Fold this sequence. Notes:
Blueprint lengths: L3 E6 L3 H13 L5 E7 L14 H4 L18 E5 L3 E5 L4 E4 L4 E3 L2 E4 L3 E3 L12 E3 L3 H14 L4 E5 L3 H12 L3 E6 L11 H13 L3 E4 L3 E6 L4 E5 L4 E4 L1 E4 L3 E3 L2 H5 L10 E3 L10 E3 L4 E3 L2 E2 L3 H15 L13 E5 L2 E7 L9 E7 L4 E7 L6 E7 L5 H4 L11 H5 L16 E3 L4 E2 H9 L5 H8 L9 H10 L16 H11 L4 H8 L8 H11 L16 H5 L2 E2 L5 E3 L10 H14 L2 E4 L5 E6 L4 H10 L12 E6 L13 H12 L8 E6 L13 E6 L2 E6 L11 E7 L1 H18 L6 H7 L3 H11 L5 H14 L3 H6 L2 H4 L17 E3 L6 E3 L14
Parallel strand pairs: 1-2, 1-7, 2-3, 7-19, 9-16, 10-11, 10-16, 11-12, 18-20, 33-34, 34-35
Antiparallel strand pairs: 4-5, 5-6, 8-17, 13-14, 14-15, 20-21, 22-23, 23-26, 24-25, 25-26, 27-28, 29-30, 30-32, 31-32, 35-36, 36-37, 38-39
Helix pairs in contact: 1-7, 10-11, 13-15, 20-22, 20-23
Amino acid sequence: MSGKSVVVVGHGMVGHRFVEALRARDEAGTWRITVLCEEELPAYDRVALSSYVGSWDAKELALAGNDYRGDALVDLRTGVRADTVDRAARTVTTSAGDTLDYDALVMATGSYAFVPPVPGHDRPECFVYRTLDDLDGIRARAEAAGPGAVGVVVGGGLLGLEAANALRLMGMAPHVVEFAPRLMPLQVDEGGGALLSRLVTDLGVTVHAGVGTAGIAEGPDGVTVELSDGSVIEAALLVFSAGVRPRDQLARESGLEVGERGGILTDLGCRTSDEAIYAVGECAAVEGTCYGLVAPGYTTAEIAADRLLGGAAEFPGADLSTKLKLMGVDVASFGDAHAATPGALEVVLSDAAKGTYAKLVVSDDAKILLGGILVGDASPYSSLRPLVGRELPGDPAALISPTGEKPGAGSLPDDAEVCSCNGVTKGTICGAIADGACDIASVKSCTNAGTTCGGCLPTIKQLLTSSGVVMSKALCEHFDQSRAELFEIIRATGTRTFSALITKFGRGTGCDICKPVVASILASTDSDHILHRQQASLQDTNDHFLANIQKNGTYSVVPRMPGGECTPEQLIVIGEVARDFGLYTKVTGGQRIDLFGARVEQLPAIWKRLVDAGMESGQAYGKSLRTVKSCVGSTWCRYGVQDSVGMAVNLENRYRGLRSPHKIKFGVSGCARECAEARGKDVGVIATEHGWNLYVGGNGGQSPKHAQLLAGGLDDATLVRYIDRYLMFYVRTADRLQRTAPWVEAMEGGLDHLKAVVCEDSLGIASELESEMAKHVEGYEDEWAGVLEDPEKLSRFVSFVNAPEEADPTVVFDESGARKVPVLMGMPPMPADVTGQ
């Protein structure tokens, strides 16, 4: 048995880091560790708490090695808290009634959510946003309230916006109340806050800034929230996220000294007023200061472990930089973000049209970087943050300009901190690379860099590349080839089954990464039905049933409507199908009608009626062409200069069913007024008096991109020829799940190279690409019709294999309001392959 014992009170991220650090360094096994974990679950990633929403799978947040299985020197006790500490006897009494002796005690009790003492704060509809149990409680209340119910979040800081996003993902309409005049007041300035408010408002969050919460009372929907300006919000629930306070109650009761603003007072060695007791993480007030970020918490854990082993480590100060994505909006803040340094200058670039705000704070001579703020696009963060306190490599404005040259990782000095979460410098990473770490996973394992928030991974990748390491393009552990290489192998060898491909060119039995990719390539290179024989087992959930799975396990059906055109007879059939099968109908942004709520066994009957009416699959479920959106063009519009509807119909009928690395969307506008939003699409066609302008590489989504002009003034035949080449070149060479916008950006030579390939045939493959597209067009068959004609394929469409006629009893709907909505009945989390429409 070990000669010394240490009791760790608390098992959050920092408590776990302490145990890991002590066990890694204590080679002689000097210390025996007992960990008291108050929650029923051992340490999990509280930084990623919001990712629990949707999956509702706590295992996904579990920190690696958090159960210490197989380690005889660590005794983890979950669901047990420390009730009292007898400092004289050096014992801890637990909630289970045990008395534990210690030679050293480490307080890792973390923090608790602050609840303002407003009237009604203790109502049952009020929650905090801190633990998995908190989220489970919020979820139960949100489900009881139903979709569209209002939820109020008090606090517009980091956690407040995380909580608002969680409510949004639960189907609620979130309101954020922030006492400061802007969101995230500690991280962003007035300009950044204004943009952030606009961006989150566009995402469906109502922002109330510059007001406080005056009172909470019982309301018709749950609670009535009165604000300090006299306005009132009727809500189903309220979440307090107005900051945290250090959990120092146990320390206070034990007679330990605490800071003026709370927190267990420690010296730079993380030792408290009792030489046998240490404090780490958010509960520690290091020389009077509490730090609420995980990076300084990890530092205190490392210091405490070092001190127990006889070291002399001291707290070096904290990097309070933050980079995160809130509801798809990038936000980053680093260094002296608010220009508090005397003489500091601010360089600001605000682009309201693109939704970006960037500010650098520099010294009075504009040579030294002091800090910065990034909103909307935080991609420069990884290269700028390590430069804080150092001389800038160029013009400050150029560093944040979209067209300016960005500093590479190779220009950083060796002592520049690349991973602030774990305090890892460039020199340490380069040393690991020199010692044989040849990929990101190896660098993570050797240095811990990139294992927490992941914000430094782009810089690590740059360092690997600049060190001469050839980055692996392997699709997965079963294939050493990239997707593009597998495409060429399949095309050249004529391989038509996954088993033959993996036997000859791979290993093992495959996985959920390579199987759908190979299925997509097989579909792109031949016109076999995607459920043909072995191919059926490769498909993801949506392609397997030729429909989009929804949150309650039902499916949506989307008939194709080229150019948005639909005959009166077809509209009548759609209405009759929706009525007869009890489906919810919605007109989509892609100019067609979506039918929601179909059970698996209902799909063939629905398809038969639609197919008989002359309609076919709109493939809203596939990595393929979705829609070709169009305006009415010259046929009806007085501004139109070309027949945009006719062109949209031709293009959709030509490229329907084309399987690709990701979904593809088109837009065709009849004039420069751009009513079809063509420049937000993978392929955009805009009419001019001189022909068609062809734009490529655009998309909406979390990172919207404007499509770029590939060629102008094209006649109909040339336009189609160029699109043929462009799409087949994309299908051949793009990576797995890579949209056209990042594909063009990552291409060596970028748009210029793409123009040369498509318009000038610089690679000499234009005729090949056109021939492959012609083969696809000639071989196209409707996937729905193919299922209806094949009894074997039809047999797949059942909820229960052993009871094919039985409906799924968990499928329930709420039809009490104006809209039919799904009711979740303990459904398991949806598969990761589910995609939007």
